[in-house]
């Protein structure tokens, strides 16, 4: 087994307390043998003491649950497992309306979203919400798991109805790749192993999808974007003139010899080397961290961006953003904030609140005077200096901002540039 | 046309280097907390890569409990010398001597929780505004919810109820006077990732991690090294065993595993088939169900 050459898939699961999300995660961890004996012993012990007939896999995420019961924290928890084909990071988020901000947080870095539907209940308001957030955050792939099939006698008809209901709703959303799978997380049907009870289902298992979904084109490979994190100047005798630009590629493919332009200065130069730790890199693309040197001495610094001469991002001080509000303090027009975008930062002013989106019906609510926590709204923001950005739908990194409270320094909003 | 994909280790490396560079850029006085364990050795290696050909632009801080394995200290000193990086040592013995910390008593006495005092004192003395460490989310359930950039109030406390949301790769390190951050660049690595990367990059480790012979005491199912820091209980006897360590804490609390794995390939094979968690041998986590969470709130790593 060549363990070292596998890809990393980040996915998010959204669900409420009863739709079997914890059981599904437990099942994935258990059937992929990612659970250690000491963890399993604890779960078996706990199931027994609660008088259950079977091992309750949802107890594997119990750390979270007991905290929830005590009301300590409701938050994104990250879990990890690997198969010989891929390594997985799960951003596990609670799915109630008041946790929209957590779902958005988990979704912001995900390649894929698992949306759980209880087969007995069909599409609920929260299913709309989960699907909408997945589309809003531009998660490239979604898998809709119709769970608890064991409780509806593995009925093909019920499954098909839910699938067509979902498709009717999601056609408005623009998620490109949606798969549907009938499962029972409790019994393990179609999770890792194929179900023997649903012959009518010809598709593959959830695990097979997770292991094979094509993610190499999830990053933008066309529009070259390299935000500079810092300038490396060793100040040593052997490297007196070394001047390297450190950063992570956010889009496109860079090669030594490429003509590039530096923003905001507009100076044009040629890439001399792309390297990391002294090793030369012939092609650099997202999400690689590299150090770049240029043929000409250009006075770049943190927050500047290196792009291709003939493919520059938008440059301007007026941003139109869809914002998820994350603070208990509502936002009003004329509020002064700090905008963080790539490695750049600027003071900004919220000029106008345009409308809110009802995340259950997708309707616009106009004429608003404030946006409260967990609401999604379109804002116009004016920054104090020009920013270099793309539309979020073009690039998730150069198209996103966070909004920071100037007084408390808290992160109060997450914005996607339109 | 080539396939523009990087493998999972390169992606994790890239993410960690991005975070380390953010720390250097966003803070005035960052430090790397160096325990001498494999995770902090890995972190130091990543920091070197992040700034090459410049040297690591921040010092390492080691909180010396006085109960360290001698191998750890020797390894630390050699590494610091090789990298040309500054080392700051915070001493728990000193904190005990000047009355800032009180030694635990009894057979299970440990200096683990006393580290908090020395750590916070040292961070304050050097006006540290960001302390990065090698903690990973897969280690323990309180850590599964830790942010990359974890905000600490002016008393060094972690408030799990009030963490900043972290979206995309936008890390908010802004803070008020007196507050600081703990930052965890290898949050998303698992134990297996760490070992595979160590092999891939050929990173040197202290000999403790490889199979060796040692005089041990088995206490509550945990194999502890016999040392001057451990008081034998009645009915306990010293046995010579073939062991290695999966984590490296203080001598009196770090459990070993019986193992013949004397090279990286064998260790990776052993981990792939092992059925207990890495911290399963840590006596400090066994004190209570929420032992880690409680210590973290107070300022532990």
Q: What features would you describe in this structure?
A:
The complex is a heterodimer of chains A (418) and B (301). Chain A has helices at residues 21-31, 37-49, 62-70, 100-107, 125-136, 156-170, 206-212, and strands at 7-15, 77-82, 86-94, 112-118, 141-147, 177-182, 225-232, 244-248, 253-254, 259-263, 268-276, 279-280, 284-285, 289-294, 305-308, 314-325, 336-341, 344-357, 364-366, 376-389, 400-405, 411-417. Chain A has 418 residues and is of the alpha+beta class. Chain A has a six-stranded mixed beta sheet, sandwiched between helices. In chain A, strands 7-8-14-11-10-15 form a six-stranded antiparallel barrel. Chain A has a six-stranded antiparallel β-barrel with strand order 16-20-18-17-21-22. Chain A is globular and about 70 Å long. Chain B is of the alpha/beta class and 301 residues long. Chain B has two domains: 8-193 and 290-298, Rossmann fold; 206-285, no CATH class. Helices cover 31% and strands 16% of the residues of chain B. Chain B has helices at 8-26, 38-51, 70-83, 92-97, 115-125, 191-201, 264-273, 291-298; strands spanning 30-33, 60-64, 87-91, 130-132, 149-152, 180-183, 212-219, 222-225, 239-245, 256-258. A six-stranded mixed beta sheet of chain B has the order 3-2-1-4-6-5, sandwiched between helices. Chain B is globular, with a radius of gyration of 19 Å. In chain B, 51% of the residues are buried. The mean pLDDT of chain B is 85. The chains are: A alpha+beta (418), B alpha/beta (301). Chains A and B meet through α2, β2, β3, α4 and β7 of A and α1, α2 and α6 of B. Chain A: It comes from Winogradskyella eximia. Chain A: This is sulfate adenylyltransferase. Chain A: It holds the Pfam family GTP-eEF1A_C. Chain A: Its EC number is 2.7.7.4.
């Amino acid at each position: 087994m060549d363990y070292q050459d596998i890809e990393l898939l980040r996915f998010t699961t959204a669900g409420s307390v009863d739709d079997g999300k914890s059981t599904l995660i437990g099942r994935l961890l258990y059937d992929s043998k990612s659970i250690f004996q000491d963890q399993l012993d604890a779960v078996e012990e706990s199931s027994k003491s609660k008088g259950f007939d079977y091992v309750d896999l949802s107890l594997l995420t119990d750390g979270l649950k007991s905290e929830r019961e005590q009301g300590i924290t409701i938050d994104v928890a990250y879990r990890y497992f690997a198969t010989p084909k891929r390594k997985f990071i799960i951003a596990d988020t609670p799915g109630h309306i008041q946790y929209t901000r957590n779902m958005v947080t988990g979704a912001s870095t995900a390649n894929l979203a698992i949306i759980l539907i209880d087969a007995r209940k069909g599409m609920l308001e929260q299913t709309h919400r989960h699907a909408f957030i997945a589309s809003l955050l531009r998660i490239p792939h979604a898998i809709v798991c119709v769970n608890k099939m064991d409780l509806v006698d593995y009925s093909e008809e019920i499954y098909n109805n839910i699938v067509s209901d979902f498709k009717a709703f999601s056609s408005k959303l623009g998620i490109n790749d949606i798969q549907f799978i009938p499962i029972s997380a409790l019994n393990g049907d179609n999770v890792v192993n194929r179900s023997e009870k649903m012959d009518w289902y010809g598709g593959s298992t959830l695990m097979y999808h997770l292991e094979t979904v094509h993610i190499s084109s999830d990053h933008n490979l066309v529009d070259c974007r390299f935000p500079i994190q810092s300038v490396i100047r060793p100040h040593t005798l052997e490297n007196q003139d070394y001047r390297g630009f450190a950063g992570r590629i956010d889009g496109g493919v860079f090669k030594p010899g490429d003509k590039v332009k530096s923003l905001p200065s507009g100076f044009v130069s040629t890439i001399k080397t792309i390297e990391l730790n002294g090793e030369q890199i012939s092609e650099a693309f997202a999400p690689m961290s590299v150090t770049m040197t240029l043929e000409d001495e250009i006075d770049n610094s943190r927050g500047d961006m290196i792009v291709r001469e003939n493919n520059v991002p938008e440059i301007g001080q007026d941003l139109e953003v869809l914002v998820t509000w994350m603070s208990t303090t509502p936002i009003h027009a004329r509020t002064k904030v700090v905008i963080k975008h790539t490695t750049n930062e600027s003071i900004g002013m919220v000029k106008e609140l345009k409308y809110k989106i009802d995340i259950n019906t997708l309707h616009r609510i106009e004429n608003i005077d404030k946006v409260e926590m967990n609401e999604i709204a379109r804002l116009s923001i004016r920054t104090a200096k020009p920013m270099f950005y793309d539309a979020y739908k073009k690039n998730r990194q150069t198209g996103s901002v966070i909004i920071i409270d100037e007084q408390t320094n808290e992160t109060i909003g997450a914005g996607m540039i339109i | 046309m080539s396939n523009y994909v990087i493998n999972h280790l390169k992606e994790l490396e890239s993410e960690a280097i991005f975070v380390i560079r953010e720390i250097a850029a966003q803070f005035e006085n960052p430090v790397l907390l160096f325990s001498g364990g494999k995770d902090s050795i890995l972190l130091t290696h990543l920091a070197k890569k992040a700034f090459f050909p410049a040297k690591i632009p921040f010092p390492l801080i080691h909180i010396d409990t006085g109960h360290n394995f001698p191998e750890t200290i020797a390894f630390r000193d050699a590494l610091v010398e090789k990298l040309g990086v500054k080392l700051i040592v915070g001493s728990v013995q000193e904190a005990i001597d000047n009355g800032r910390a009180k030694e635990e008593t009894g057979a299970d006495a440990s200096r683990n929780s006393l580290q908090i005092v020395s750590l916070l004192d040292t961070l304050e003395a050097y006006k540290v505004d960001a302390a990065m460490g090698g903690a990973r989310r897969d280690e323990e359930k309180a850590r599964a919810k830790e942010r990359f950039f974890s905000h600490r109030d002016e008393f060094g406390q972690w408030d799990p109820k009030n963490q900043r949301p972290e979206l995309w790769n936008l890390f908010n390190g802004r803070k008020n006077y007196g507050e600081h951050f703990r930052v965890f660049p290898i949050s998303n690595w698992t134990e297996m990732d760490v070992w595979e990367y160590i092999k891939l990059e050929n990173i040197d480790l202290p000999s403790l991690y490889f199979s060796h012979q040692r005089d041990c005491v088995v206490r509550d199912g945990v194999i502890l090294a016999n040392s001057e820091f451990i008081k034998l209980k009645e009915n306990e006897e010293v046995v010579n065993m073939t062991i290695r360590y999966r984590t490296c804490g203080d001598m009196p609390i770090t459990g070993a595993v019986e193992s013949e794995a004397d090279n990286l390939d064998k260790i990776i094979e052993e981990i792939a088939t092992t059925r207990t968690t890495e911290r399963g041998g840590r006596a400090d986590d066994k004190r209570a169900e929420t032992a880690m969470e409680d210590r973290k709130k107070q300022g532990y790593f």
